[in-house]
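*** Backbone structure tokens ***
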Amino acid sequence: MEMEYEEAIDWIHSREKFKVKPGLKRMEWMMERLGHPEKKFRSVHIAGTNGKGSTLSFLRYILQQQGMSVGTFTSPYIEKFNERISVDGQSIQDEALAEFVLRVKPLSEELGQTHLGEPTEFEIITAVAMLYFSETSLDLVLIETGLGGRFDSTNILTPVLSLITNIGHDHMNVLGSTIREIAEEKAGIIKPEIPVVTGVKQQEAIEVITQKARSCHSKVFRLGRDFNITHQSSSDDGESFVFANETFHPETFVSQMKGPHQVENASLAIQAAEVLRALGIQIDRNLYRKGITSTRWPARFEKVMDAPLTIIDGAHNEEGTSALVETVKRHYADKRVVLVYSALEDKPVKKMLNQLESVVDKAYMTTFEFPRALKGHELAEYSDIAETVAIEDYKQAIQIASEQVGEDGILLITGSLYFISRIREYFEIKENSR
């Protein structure tokens, strides 16, 4: 019987009730039963609080320039669930997704009868991804952790390279509350004798990662020590920066992904390519530049309209918000900024709005259909932005806000990534109906 796509997606989402359960036992059990798909392809494993998706994108574009076929496993998605499992930027087809889910479903039911219990939604998606990648002919697969690292269901992999972007405060309730504790979770992806590339900055995070790598006899390549970047300028074209390491002569790159933090993400990707090259993978350094320049990643300071200039950004935690504020200051310091904002209740909303206050002239708080979405009037109570208005209907909020921007201003829409996903859809429909 053919399992229809909608049914497959509904079934996956119905797993939500099996909350995150630490441990890899269920994944190991499923991989064993599926004939170990996770061992059938070469992968790069990426953990970190922020920048996983962007770093993965830079690396994917660099590798695709080499003529490689690259699988990617990312979360969350922006417009459609299938984006999470992609090959060369193309999402898995509906039929294929349904077919792989159908193969995993009976295992899930069988697992539910054991002491290990039912697998979670993310475990199912991970198992489907592993199967799909193992049966597609790929040169390399880039895999993002869902949450943390050590007990993340993707950690059944033994990659050729581990990458830890940075450490910040996110999912504190699950991963621990200090930088050291969070670093220990992320460092859980370090495997014996597998090299590590990292952009972490805090001393205690560096210590945790260095220690774990030492006990695994893994070589660490650290931003600021083993490879370096100099940010040269920010312009309409994006960010211009110089990259260098011991064997790579300084070279200038331009990233169209705006924001100083994107320069770090790009450099992590270049260094990752350097390590893959040293491992004997055929990589031409002359193609790095083209890879970096062509990289795109939706909802990261993305322009969705020219008049008024409208930027959307999925800054959904403190680090993401401070990166966003920094980008606005660098590129649009002298412009009037009108904000449309919506966020979920489990996020540090007050702190994020405080950060945004330094660049925003007028703010519209709104909401959208989603289980944990705060109402516009609730958000307004957290806002110290002088002119804050609550409009519950987000489409109306956008319309009114865009009239307030003026000739030379910028409309900034941010908050929850789930919200941004709706907003992107809204602008696409608008674009198509013109």
Remarks:
- The mean pLDDT is 93.
- Residues 61 and 294 are 7 Å apart (CA to CA).
- The chain has 15 helices and 17 strands.
